Amino acid sequence: MLVFFLNHLAAEYEWLSALNVFRYLTFRGICGVLTSMLVCLWLGPPMIRKFNARQLGQPVRDDGPPTHHIKSGTPTMGGALILVSVVLSTLLWADLANRFIWVILLTCIGFGFVGWLDDFLKLRSNTARGIGAWAKYALQSAFGILAAAFLYYSAVTPAETALLVPFFKGVSVPLGVFYIVIAYLLIVGSSNAVNLTDGLDGLAILPAALVTGALGIFAYAGGHAVFSTYLGIPHIPGAGEVLVFCAALVGAGLGFLWFNTYPAQVFMGDIGALSVGAALGVVALIVRQEIVFLLMAGVFVVETASVILQVASFKILGRRMFRMAPLHHHFELKGWPEPKIIVRFWIVTLVLVLAGLATLKVR
């Protein structure tokens, strides 16, 4: 929106030609990071005060770690701050004629609505139970299928619906209509994985920001004809613009972490975790890096796997594999201090993200 106005001014008035700098993706990406982060830092304190005044505190699970009872009453639904910051920054700095921008934004908002509804019902009942599991999954599925179908039917090149195999140049598997199934599973799975990981202060948001930043690099490279050819990745016309969204999400994540770091002043809630996770899934699909995404998001994958293994072990063997799932609770019950778990998960994510970026050259 703002980009169109500035470009118009630069074209209309020669003395404003310096505004042509806003045509560059990298510059708009920097603007996106700073805008979303500043919006977060600006709106965060009054939002937290309002949530405290209205007693919108996080209900704590009765079967959770004992150390979590002290967190009871901490404001939740702080993910709304992330959502507002990202949407505002993206609308300001992205090319709104780009189809990828709209599918990411609308998916993010749709999953944010599901999360808001879940958080709202938890607060109203003052329990850790929101909407039913099946109702929640059905709503997520509806938005996930819509996003997957849009990406499939709007594809303009065969590469947009083929599964790219990392470490090999030009090796990809055409998926055909099966792409919709893969895309749907990735979007919904990523959304729930971030939600499961969001159990400690700052545990989910920084890894999400790190992975998003890396996906932004893939978007920029894949959207650039010369860079994509040099790196041996498919050229996706228009994918470069996704960098602006990724930058906005990174900025919002860092801004939110200012308030969410241990001890947290506000929690992300489902409204933030579900929307951020879904956005990560959609971006990974657009840049055709689903396999690399699973590598970089290894912390989210392992957290989700720990829940699945815990349930399967209990139902099949009659005993639990972990002291508690997701995995971060297992380490809590082993006596690890919360900050130690958080920082170590951050370090693991950083290593995995660097490994994912290395696949750009290891081909």
| Unreliable spans | none
User: Largest beta sheet: what is the strand line-up?
Assistant: 1-2
Share of β-strand residues: under 5%
Helical segment count: 14
Number of strands: 2
* Largest sheet: number of strands, sense, barrel closure: 2 strands, antiparallel
The SSE string, one letter per element, is HHHHHEEHHHHHHHHH
The N- and C-terminal alpha carbons lie at a distance of: 38 Å
Please give the share of residues in helix.
Answer: 55-70%
Overall outline: globular
* Computed structural class: mainly alpha
Rg result: 21 Å
What does this structure look like?
The protein is mostly helical. The protein has one domain (2-9, 31-291). Helices cover 66% and strands 2% of the residues. The protein is built from 14 helices and 2 strands; from the N terminus they run H-H-H-H-H-E-E-H-H-H-H-H-H-H-H-H. The protein has helices spanning 2-12, 25-53, 79-93, 99-125, 133-153, 178-197, 205-223, 225-231, 242-260, 269-286, 290-296, 298-317, 327-333, 338-358; strands at residues 162-164, 172-174.
